[in-house]
């Protein structure tokens, strides 16, 4: 019988911070990760996520305020701005934010770029029509997931949407929540299947779709890798 995952929901901030310290090395790379723009990284491209583009083109999400969490160098934020959204793009990495600001300036689009932790930047509750996470969630330690999901739900207006891209099990480290703390590592990121995504997010949001990301050819104007999962959910 598979043991139940640890329950972190009752921990106070001091206890959560102690767990942060155990996994501090998992976040050490991010401030400078985007500094080498020639790094052979699959998402160092201009193209937006194929699932995001598809949802917008199908009219599943109407333009309004979009908050892009873990925006990286801004590829999805710029696509949203081009589709008529007011965009706030947030990332912890100094090098990512610098790159995003350059790209926004060159594009002529209007995007508010914020360098901050996704747990600390200020927002107006119930204001967002879309919160989008194109690769942040799978880098969160298990003890911070509850806090993250609560913040996402608070950002959204009733009827607002949450879009997610995360590692599938085939793309993640394969670590269970318990193993993260046994090894003091996320192993590069955690993978989530449909069952686990529903288990985690259904208490917060109404899930509309979960599917593997489509693999897109290098020549495509869209980004897609089949080791990722996508989810679209709505606040009731």
UniProtKB/TrEMBL annotation:
Pfam families: Methyltransf_25 (PF13649). InterPro entries: Diverse_substrate_MTase, Methyltransf_25, SAM-dependent_MTases_sf. SUPFAM superfamilies: S-adenosyl-L-methionine-dependent methyltransferases. One of its GO terms (molecular function) is methyltransferase activity. Residues 67-160 form the Methyltransferase domain. It comes from the Bacteria. It is an enzyme of class 2 (transferase). GO terms for biological process: methylation. Its EC number is 2.1.1.-. Keywords: Methyltransferase, Transferase. PANTHER family: METHYLTRANSF_11 DOMAIN-CONTAINING PROTEIN, METHYLTRANSFERASE TYPE 11 DOMAIN-CONTAINING PROTEIN. This is Class I SAM-dependent methyltransferase. The lineage of its organism: Bacteria, Pseudomonadati, Pseudomonadota, Betaproteobacteria, Neisseriales.
């Amino acid at each position: 019988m598979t043991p139940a995952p640890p329950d972190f929901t009752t921990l106070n901030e001091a206890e959560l911070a102690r767990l942060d310290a155990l996994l501090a090395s998992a976040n050490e790379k991010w401030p400078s990760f985007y500094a080498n723009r020639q790094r052979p990284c699959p998402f160092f491209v201009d193209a937006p996520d194929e699932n995001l583009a598809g949802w917008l083109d199908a009219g599943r999400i109407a333009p309004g305020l979009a908050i892009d969490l873990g925006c990286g160098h801004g590829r999805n934020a710029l696509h949203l701005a081009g589709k008529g959204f007011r965009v706030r793009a947030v990332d912890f990495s100094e090098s990512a934010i610098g790159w995003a600001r350059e790209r926004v300036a060159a594009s002529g689009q209007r995007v508010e770029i914020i360098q901050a932790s996704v747990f600390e930047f200020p927002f107006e509750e119930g204001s967002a029509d879309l919160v989008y996470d194109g690769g942040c969630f799978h880098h969160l330690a298990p003890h911070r997931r509850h806090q993250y999901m609560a913040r996402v739900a608070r950002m959204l207006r009733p009827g607002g949407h949450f879009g997610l891209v995360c590692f599938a099990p085939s793309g993640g480290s394969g670590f269970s929540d318990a193993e993260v703390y046994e090894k003091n590592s996320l192993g590069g990121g955690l993978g989530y299947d449909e069952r686990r995504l529903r288990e985690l997010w259904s208490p917060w949001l109404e899930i509309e779709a979960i599917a593997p990301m489509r693999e897109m050819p290098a020549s495509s104007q869209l980004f897609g890798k089949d080791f990722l999962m996508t989810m679209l959910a709505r606040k009731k």
